[in-house]
Amino acid sequence: MNNANHLLLLLILFVLTLISQGHAQHHWGKEKVTNLHFYYQEKLTGDNATIVLSGRPNDNASANFLTFGAVSVIDAHLTEGEDPNSPLIGHAQGLSVSAGQEQLMLVFVADFGFTAGEFNGSSISILSRNPLLETDRELAVVGGRGMFRMARGFAFLHAVNVTADITKIEYNVTVFHYE
C-alpha cells in the first residue's frame, strides 16, 4: 500500500471516529456526575433476615455466610440515615459469594434499586470484590437503569456497625451517567 492509500485510509478512519462520537453524544446526551449518600442495612438473623445462605460447600454442613464457597441472596434496605427506622429509599438485591481462602472477602453483585425520592425507579449495579475486614473500602459501579442508564463509577463504603445480627454500612457513591 502506498502513502496516498495510507493517508486516505487514515482520513476515512478519522471521519468515522468523528461521526461516531457525535452520534453517541447526540443519542445519550451530556455526561453527568451524581453523588449519592445512603445507608445499607442488612439483618443477618430472625424472621425478617435480609440475607439468606442459599448455597454452601458440599463438605461443610455447618457453613455460614462467610465460609469459603458460600453463596448468599440479599434483599437489604437502603435508608436515608443511619437509624434503621429512617426513611427507606430502596433495596439492594443480589448475591454475595465468599471467595477468599486466605482473607475474608466476598464477590458482591447487586442492583441498588431506588424506590423513593429523585431517583425513584432507577438503580445502580455494583459488581466488585468486597474485603469485609476493611472498615473503609471501595466497590465498582458497573451499570444502571432509568436515570442511571450506562452508569459507571465507584462506591466508598464505611462500616458503621457490624455485629452477629446486623450490618450497617455507609455508602458514598459517585456515578457517571448521561442526562
Automatic annotation (TrEMBL):
Q: Name one Pfam family in it.
A: Dirigent
Q: Which GO terms describe its biological process?
A: phenylpropanoid biosynthetic process
The keyword Signal appears for this protein:
yes
What is the protein name stated in its UniProt record?
A: Dirigent protein
Please list the coiled coil stretches. none
Please give the GO cellular component terms listed in this UniProt entry: apoplast
Keywords from UniProt, A to Z, are:
Apoplast, Secreted, Signal
Protein's job: Dirigent proteins impart stereoselectivity on the phenoxy radical-coupling reaction, yielding optically active lignans from two molecules of coniferyl alcohol in the biosynthesis of lignans, flavonolignans, and alkaloids and thus plays a central role in plant secondary metabolism.
Q: Which residues form the signal peptide?
A: 1-24
Similarity field:
Belongs to the plant dirigent protein family.
Complex formation: Homodimer.
Q: Does the keyword tRNA-binding apply?
A: no
Q: Where in the cell is it found?
A: Secreted, Extracellular space, Apoplast
